[in-house]
Write a structure and sequence with these properties.
- There is one protein chain.
- By secondary structure, the chain is α/β, with parallel strands linked by helices.
- The protein has two domains: 2-155, HUPs (Rossmann fold); 161-332, Riboflavin kinase-like (Elongation Factor Tu (Ef-tu), domain 3, Beta Barrel), CATH 2.40.30.
- Helices cover 31% and strands 24% of the residues.
- It has twelve helices and 16 strands.
- It has helices spanning 7-11, 29-45, 58-62, 74-84, 96-99, 103-114, 136-145, 165-173, 177-184, 200-203, 287-310, 315-319, and strands spanning 2-4, 18-21, 49-55, 88-93, 119-123, 127-128, 134-135, 149-153, 157-158, 161-162, 188-195, 209-213, 222-230, 233-242, 253-258, 269-279.
- A six-stranded parallel beta sheet has the order 1-4-3-2-5-8, with helices on both faces.
- Helix 2 (29-45) links the parallel strand 2 and strand 3.
- The chain is elongated and about 70 Å long.
- The protein starts with a strand and ends in a 45-residue tail after the last helix.
Length: 364
């Protein structure tokens, strides 16, 4: 995959490109449906696949106070594009000048004359041009006048509602990382450098890796079943997000305890993938009470990790979230745990295989 920030530099590399245009924050399942259509058409016609996106997010320029937190970092976003199989990425700097370009000018000067597109595919709710006046229907009409094939890709829905970056942000902000996983098609992941903390975890027998997140969007405070990825090695883990209220002088932190054993991770890049929420952050009467609760949390976290590996998205994985040791065989059982929000009848998404949703029970 090759990344360009300038139309003129990119044009020489393109052969009758098939493209899509958008922000693609998170590259969720709805985005993937569009990208998959582009890849399908590029293979069928022997053309290059191209994704056109913008940096920064337009609202950062036009209305900074309303700009959303990004789901992915720039590095994560480009990695997802490459993993999807795209050949070329054009990252257009979003400026006040670009914001003043009308929809008609954008199609004519950028898509047709600038890039020489042969086909372009966008989501049904796509907007572009000055004041977001351009719609997907207008794009189709403008492209037809210029000899470019343009189509709208139907939106993807999950549990009756459209999949969107905004919906994912709301889920993450509420701690609903399982719902976010369903919408993204993969676990939500944040990344950053492991930094020195206050060392309390190690003294209590639960050493943690403190993350300085590069991501803007962080899940709601609480305790989560996670996976920690360091140098491509995946470790089952538990992550606490919050201010650690048991300790009066503690500050906000994102700290991860690796279940398979601790090692020196300082100054290394680590990715944390969120699989399920265990409980809200609690204030304990003493550090000893916190240690007791942490020991109890280890088992369901291990169970959760094992079952997620075996059957992602399944109700059985949800059940393991509150399983105790004698109940590990319940992973073969399809019935959801008490208190979960898995629908009685599993529903089929329009864009992928059958999935289910649940909310993790709070451990006590």
């Amino acid at each position: 995959m090759k990344v360009f920030g300038d139309i003129a530099a990119l044009r020489a590399h393109l052969k009758a490109p098939v493209a899509t245009v958008g922000n693609f924050d998170g590259l969720h399942r709805g985005h993937r449906a569009i990208v998959d259509r582009v890849l399908e058409r590029a293979r069928a016609t022997g053309a290059n696949s191209l994704l056109i996106t913008f940096d920064p997010h337009p609202l950062r320029v036009l209305a900074p106070e309303r700009a959303p937190f990004m789901i992915t970092t720039r590095r994560q976003k480009l990695a997802l594009f490459e993993e999807a199989g795209l050949e070329y990425i054009l990252v257009l700097p979003f400026t006040v000048e670009l914001a003043e370009v009308t929809a008609e000018r954008f199609v004519r000067e950028h898509l047709s004359e600038g890039l020489g597109l042969k086909e372009v595919y966008v989501g049904a709710n796509f907007n572009f041009g000055r004041g977001r006046a351009g719609t997907a229907d207008l794009l189709v009409r403008l492209c037809a006048d210029l000899g470019i094939r343009a189509e709208k890709v139907p939106e993807c829905r999950y549990l009756g509602s459209p999949i969107s970056s905004s919906r994912i942000r709301r889920a993450v902000a509420a701690g609903e990382v399982e719902l976010a996983r369903e919408l993204l098609g993969r676990p939500l992941a944040i990344e950053g450098t492991v930094v020195h903390g206050d060392g309390r975890g190690a003294k209590l027998g639960f050493p943690t890796a403190n993350l300085a997140p590069q991501n803007e969007l962080i899940p709601q405070d609480g305790v989560y079943v996670t996976e920690a990825v360091v140098e491509r090695e995946v470790h089952p883990a538990v992550t606490n997000i919050g201010s650690r209220p048991t300790f009066s002088e503690a500050q906000y932190a994102v700290e991860t305890h690796l279940l398979g054993g601790h090692r020196n991770l300082y100054d290394q890049l680590m990715e944390v993938r969120f699989l399920a929420r265990l409980r809200q952050e609690l204030k304990f009467e003493s550090p000893a009470a916190l240690v007791e609760q942490s020991v109890r949390a280890r088992l369901p976290a291990r169970s959760n990790g094992l079952c997620y590996d075996a059957a992602p998205f399944s109700p059985a994985a949800r059940r393991c979230q509150v399983a105790a040791a004698p109940e590990l065989d319940a992973c073969a059982d399809s019935s959801p745990s008490k208190g979960s929000r898995v629908p009685a009848r599993r529903r089929r998404s329009r864009c992928s295989r059958t999935t289910s949703r649940s909310k993790g029970s709070i451990m006590s």
